[in-house]
Amino acid sequence: MAHIRTEALCEDELNHRLAREGDQAARWLYSSEALTWLHRELFRDLPAADLQLADGSRMLPGAMRERGVAVGRHEAPTGESLPRFLARWQQVCAGTRRGEASVVALAAAHHRLAWMHPFLDGNGRVTRLHTHLLLEGWGLTGGLWSPLRGFARTEARYKALLQAAGEHRRGNLTQAGLVEWITYTLEVCTDQVEFMAQQLHVGGMRDRIQAALAYETAVVKSGVREEALMPLHDLFATQGELGRADFKAMTGLGERVATSLLSALLHRGFLATDSSYGSLRFAIPRHALRFYFPALWPEAEQDQALLEGEAVRGGTARNTHGRKTQR
To answer: Does domain 203-286 have CATH number 1.10.10?
Structure first.
């Protein structure tokens, strides 16, 4: 829950900075200020017992370490030298030009940040979230994909390559290991883009909206009608807004019926608006997930079936007492 909250908080902060600073917003993520902020937000709500470390000391959310640590065979830079390592890391990675170089840099930065181990604990979570946010900050995800899923699905390889890239060759970190790590990171990103493109299958969205509307009409009987297909698909395709009069006109229905349809769509969560008379936006209610994106949320099918089963059982029970079954 802390990770979800922190991710949303950081994305909001990035959007504000992008509006004010442009490219500098993503570069800010390479600062010590950004790293300590990420760490603090991730761990600030943990109970004291969960902040206790194996050696009996306590991790302070947002506090850089001041003493040496060893992770397996790797001895991280001393606490005294850590600020210089971080300054060099920021100088090199944040100084890369926008484009392919910045993507290679964020992949390399992931390893180097984990290698520096700036916090007593929680470095892996901070580092992975940092990479996700950099991709978001460079405008490469559109909120549709994340490398975090790919890292989690290839955990053994992730850890092995991360360790291999930290091995020493004649006193220096191995360049070949770093190149292999960067290649892996780019492969993870590409794989996740392809996965989400396949799962979202935006080209077939019109048919899936129609299926959701048909179910509402035939089974739920919520007042939603299939005539809403054209304006709903238009809102999805453009990701824009429609005035209420325009939306109703696109249904081809009379004023009274179109107004009732609009109310039903808002009530069922197919549309979003900021006010009683405001423009309309495309929305995705939970009960429509199984139609819109079935391969992404298969559990939505099961959850909805359970809810409908409860509704049927509840309606039957009430009917035996002579009361209405409609919900």
So the answer is: yes
**Over the stretch 85-109, which tens digit does the pLDDT of each residue have?**
999 999 999 999 999 999 999 999 9
Q: What SS3 class is residue 210?
A: helix
CA distance readout (Å), 155 to 47, 135, 215, 267? 27, 20, 40, 42
For residue 257, give the nearest of 282, 292, 227 by alpha carbon: 227
- CATH architecture observed for domain 2-200: Orthogonal Bundle (1.10)
- Tokens 């600062």 identify what position? 31
In tens, the pLDDT along 197-217 reads 887 777 789 999 999 999 999
Residue 118 CB-density burial (10 A; 0-12 exposed, 13-18 middle, 19+ buried): buried
At how many degrees (to 10) do helices 255-267 and 244-251 cross? 110
- In whole angstroms, give the CA distance from residue 312 to residue 251: 31
| Contact between residue 86 and residue 116 where contact means Cβ atoms under 8 Å apart | yes
Torsion on CA atoms 85, 89, 92, 94, rounded to nearest 10? -140
